[in-house]
Design a protein that fits this description.
The complex is a heterotrimer of chains A (about 325), B (about 270) and C (about 325).
Chain A: E1 2-11, E2 21-31, E3 36-40, H1 47-55, E4 63-70, E5 73-74, H2 80-90, E6 91-94, H3 108-120, H4 124-137, H5 143-146, H6 156-168, E7 174-178, H7 186-204, E8 206-211, H8 214-220, E9 223-228, E10 231-236, H9 238-243, H10 248-257, H11 297-301, E11 307-309, E12 312-314
Parallel strand pairs in A: 3-8, 3-9, 6-7, 7-8
Antiparallel strand pairs in A: 1-2, 1-4, 4-5, 9-10, 10-12, 11-12
Chain B: H1 7-29, H2 62-98, H3 100-115, H4 118-129, H5 133-144, H6 146-160, H7 163-170, H8 175-188, H9 191-211, H10 222-230, H11 238-270
Helix pairs in contact in B: 1-2, 1-11, 2-3, 2-5, 2-6, 2-9, 2-11, 3-6, 4-5, 5-9, 6-8, 7-8, 9-10, 9-11, 10-11
Chain C: E1 4-15, E2 18-30, E3 35-39, H1 46-53, E4 61-66, E5 69-70, H2 80-85, E6 86-89, H3 103-113, H4 122-132, H5 149-161, E7 167-171, H6 179-196, E8 199-204, H7 207-213, E9 216-221, E10 224-230, H8 231-236, H9 241-249, H10 256-259, H11 291-295, E11 301-304, E12 307-309
Parallel strand pairs in C: 3-8, 3-9, 6-7, 7-8
Antiparallel strand pairs in C: 1-2, 1-4, 4-5, 9-10, 10-12, 11-12
The chains are: A alpha/beta (about 325), B mainly alpha (about 270), C alpha/beta (about 325).
Chain lengths: ~325, ~270, ~325
């Protein structure tokens, strides 16, 4: 339903003479209704640029190539008016900072009413009834009263629930969620993750979750795409990605991010490290090779092709091997 | 450094540089006292090579007046702005650091000064103290420090709670050291962006005071020249137009430079 | 006798017309060579406790001592020697460096202020410190914004190490770093603890990180310590229902986590510290609360040899 093919994004340099930076280097994504796809990566991996491109929020100076189809209609190169219909009506958005997406001078009910009314042509009372129903569906107790509250009167977790309700208000086909639980406390994060899993089933929407946290992705997603230096280096189901990663970068991420899986061995034992920093996108070799414990000459000479691996695929010449 | 400046900033800086050179070279460009009667009255510009900009109704050289007026305008403008910014930094710093009742008191005083329009306050002070260059500088300084004081105080309050200030405390830095080495340099930086406006306003207020006759009668001033020329506005409009244009050019160039400095500051802060 | 000890600390702040109780009778001890993990959600008071431990704040009531000397004498400066021995590593490394100073000058500053440098050797000493934390000394002349988060956090640790501290307070030191950089910083801290016998108070909301590196764990909730004990004991068999919920709320990486019906799920969110519930402060969210919890405030008591909990029902 959401189909991304060979998407590349280049940000403009500071002056016309500079080449600019390649943020995303030709990626494919597929997402269906009632499915959760997680896009994970660190800063500089291109995951945020990908999300902005899908949302139509990239700055004008950024050049995009490739195609993004939503229900077989291209949504990549639209004019401003078309963009805003797609963004509001067919794609809902959830951000890291739930306060940032809510208007501080309107009650949360008024804000959701407005979305409901513009997209679904309901009258005032029907809209409020729908708003209350939405708030109730995202797990807010006493929704009629909470609809009359202003954002600053709500806690971080409640605000994120309201933001989710607002994203659902236009009955979108896809929801893009950018680090939706990163700013929340542990117990609240667990609640919101439970809610997202539940909503995808009940509301029958597709969810693209962008996060740096492998554990969060594994808790929610049906499929996980791992991004590194602008490319998708591995695409797997969560279970297999965690227990049997194909790409050495996925393995390193797992060791760094999943303490409960790879428990420490003894007091003050060193943790597995990943040396160095992420390379820039668009090289002629494997971008991970300089940091990779398995790298061989071939990795430094050519870009590894995507090969089938386990229940998915990985872009690595030595997929599935481990360092001795 | 200049390559990050806008075109307006470069033009402003060039014009300002010319004005400063003119002010410095005034005794050589137009020797003698510009208030002396040197020729026939009301000679139009470009008619007599000895008086390129003509003469006024008393036969004084307009070019000499303009050149020497540059001195007065720039001197009063810069001195007043420097004094205003100095007072503003002092008040803002004391209020920001000490907090509590000192802060409350100083801020009420600052607000009291801010409610009176700059020009009216300066006018009242010069009328009371007498028209001399020093008094004009003082009057302008006293009426335009509050903006700086409020800016510096706000910056200090925000910088005081930064992590790097705590880091300096942990390193064992004294309270005075923290004030002068960690907080104040950062708090004073944005004042750079205010300099242009402050100097521009000071030049304008000085000219306005001179126009009303409230300036040192023994010094030629652009504002005074405009006031003089007003009587013969119909027959010799150049006597108003030339010094008036000088005021406009000076204020504009100072503002352009100030604006460019402010923008540069913004860029360096965003990094 | 612990090197750093905080006893029965109380701390309140006036905020927006109300009074926030950040700490309500908290005790904490830290020895050299051990890592104590301090965990809890926002508003639990862990950052206030860290600031008191670092001597940047003082309790309204209660004691904070370092060795035998008071950490926070009322109305007076901490003596320079005590100050030197306790250093802090901040959450946001960029914010902890003066933007107008080069990184090398910032690292040298504590040394110069404490007269631990003689003329001309500043650059070599700074280079040595940078080398010890795995930072290229060539970066010495850069401004903070020219370094990555991981590099800056190393620089912050180098700055703290210059004073040869006994204790390092780390307030969320890896929270702002990328996942793959975290392990580098954590290993550096582990090595400092092991090789230099430095005691580390590791404040974090990230239970996974604490579980990996701490010797002892202290769990806070709304200004109180609700459970503390050895790292193994607290995670393998938590006695306080809040600790159990906290541990269960961290995704394990297993897809089964989401389907786990038996997982402890907490309703609601941490209440506002403006308005602390009566009785046990956890009772409004507690899945096993009984009548007694609504009235009696439980005290922290030893449950077993290596665990204390503040719960009427813990055993």
């Amino acid at each position: 339903m959401l189909k991304v093919r060979d998407l590349a994004i280049r940000f403009a340099g500071r002056s016309a003479s500079e080449a600019g930076t390649l943020a995303v280097d030709g990626i494919d994504l597929d997402l269906d209704r009632a499915q959760v796809l997680a896009l994970i990566g660190e800063s500089g991996s291109g995951k945020s640029a990908t999300m902005l491109a899908l949302a139509g929020l990239l700055p004008k100076s950024a050049k995009t190539t490739g195609s993004v189809l939503l229900d077989d209609r291209s949504i990549l190169h639209l004019d401003e008016r078309e963009k805003s219909t797609v963004r509001g009506r067919r794609i809902g958005m959830i951000f890291q900072d739930p306060g940032g997406s809510l208007n501080p001078v309107l009650t949360v009910g008024d804000q959701i009413d407005e979305v409901v009314r513009t997209h679904r042509r309901l009258d005032r009372r029907a809209a409020r009834a729908e708003t209350v129903s939405l708030l109730s569906r995202v797990g807010i107790g006493d929704p009629a009263a909470r609809a009359r509250a202003y954002p600053h009167q709500l806690s971080g977790g409640l605000k994120q629930r309201v933001a989710i309700a607002a994203a659902l208000a236009a009955q979108p086909t896809v929801i893009l969620a950018d680090e939706p639980t990163t700013a929340l406390d542990a117990t609240v994060q667990a609640q919101i993750l439970d809610l997202l899993v539940n909503l995808v089933q009940v509301e029958h929407v597709a969810l693209l979750l962008v996060t740096h946290d492998l554990a969060v992705a594994a808790a929610v997603a049906d499929r996980i795409a791992v991004m590194y230096a602008g490319k998708i280096v591995e695409r797997r189901g969560p279970e297999q990605l965690v227990t049997d990663p194909g790409h050495p970068y996925s393995r390193a991420l797992g060791q760094a991010a999943l303490p409960f899986v790879a428990a420490g061995d003894g007091r003050h034992a060193a943790l597995p490290e990943l040396p160095g920093r992420m390379a820039e996108a668009g090289g002629t070799a494997c971008a991970f090779a300089p940091r990779c414990p398995l790298a061989i000459d071939r990795c430094r000479a050519q870009v590894p092709p995507v090969v089938p691996f386990g229940d998915g695929e990985a872009a690595c010449f030595r997929a599935g091997e481990t360092a001795q | 450094m200049m390559r990050h400046w806008s075109i307006g900033g470069v033009i402003g800086a060039a014009v300002l540089a010319v004005l400063v050179l003119v002010a410095i070279a005034a005794p050589w460009l137009a020797p003698g006292d510009p208030l002396d009667i040197v020729g026939r009255p009301l000679l139009p510009p470009f008619t007599d090579p000895r008086f390129p900009l003509g003469t006024d109704q008393l036969g004084r050289n307009v070019f000499a007046g303009l050149v020497h007026g540059t001195r007065v305008s720039l001197l009063v403008g810069l001195a007043a702005a420097a004094a205003a910014i100095g007072v503003g930094i002092l008040v803002g710093t004391v209020a920001g650091f000490l907090g509590g009742w000192t802060d409350e008191g100083l801020m009420r005083v600052t607000e009291a000064f801010q409610t009176i329009p700059t020009f009216l306050l300066a006018l009242a002070m010069v009328s009371a103290l007498g028209a001399s260059t020093v008094n004009v500088v003082l009057a302008i300084a006293i009426s335009s420090w509050p903006a700086t004081a409020r800016l510096v105080r706000a910056e200090i309050l925000s910088l005081k709670s930064r992590d790097y200030v705590d880091a300096a405390r942990l390193a064992g830095m004294s309270r005075l050291g923290i004030a002068f080495r960690e907080v104040l340099p950062g708090a004073v930086q944005p004042v750079l962006a205010l300099i242009g406006i402050t100097v521009g306003v000071a030049i304008l207020v000085e000219s306005s005071l001179a126009f009303l006759g409230l300036s040192d009668p023994n010094q030629v001033s652009w504002g005074g020249m405009v006031a003089n020329g007003r009587a013969v506005l119909r027959t010799a409009p150049y006597l108003v137009a030339i010094p008036g244009a000088a005021v406009a050019v000076a204020v504009l160039s100072v503002s352009l430079v100030g604006d460019a400095m402010g923008r540069r500051l913004l860029v360096s802060r965003e990094r | 006798m612990s090197v750093l000890a905080i006893e029965d600390a109380h701390r309140q702040f006036a905020s927006g017309g109300g009074i926030v109780t950040a700490l309500d009778g908290v005790s904490l001890a830290l020895d050299r060579g051990e890592i104590v993990g301090l965990v809890g959600e926002s508003g639990c008071g862990k950052s206030t406790l860290a600031r008191i431990a670092a001597g940047l704040d003082r309790p309204d009531d209660g004691k904070a001592t370092f060795g035998s000397r008071p950490m926070a004498p009322a109305g007076r400066q901490i003596d320079a020697d005590t100050r030197r021995r306790v250093q802090l590593v901040f959450q946001d490394p960029l914010a902890s460096f003066n933007p107008r100073r080069t990184v090398g000058r910032s690292i040298a500053l504590p040394l110069r202020l404490n007269r631990m440098l003689s003329g001309g050797q500043e650059r070599s000493v700074v280079a040595e410190l940078m080398d010890q934390v795995g930072l290229d000394p060539a970066l010495m002349d850069r401004k903070p914004h020219q370094l990555s988060g991981g590099q800056l956090q190393r620089a912050a640790i180098a700055r703290a190490l210059g004073l040869n501290p006994d204790v390092l307070i780390c307030d969320e030191p890896v929270a702002s770093l990328d996942v793959s950089v975290r392990a580098q910083i954590l290993n550096l801290l582990l090595a400092l603890c092991r090789d230099r016998n430095i005691g580390i108070l590791f404040v974090s909301h990230d239970l996974g990180v604490v579980r990996r590196i701490a010797d002892r764990v202290v769990v806070m909730y709304l200004g109180r310590v609700v459970e503390q004990g050895s790292n193994e004991a607290v995670w393998s068999a938590p006695r306080h229902p809040y600790t159990r919920a906290l541990a269960a709320s961290v995704p394990t990486g297993a897809a089964s986590w989401r389907l786990d019906q038996g997982r402890v799920r907490l309703a609601g969110e941490p209440p506002s510290p403006f308005d602390v519930p009566t009785g046990c402060r956890f009772h409004p969210r507690c899945p096993i609360a009984i009548d007694r919890c609504r009235q009696d405030d439980p005290v922290l008591r030893p449950i077993s040899q290596d665990i204390d909990a503040a719960c009427h029902l813990a055993e």
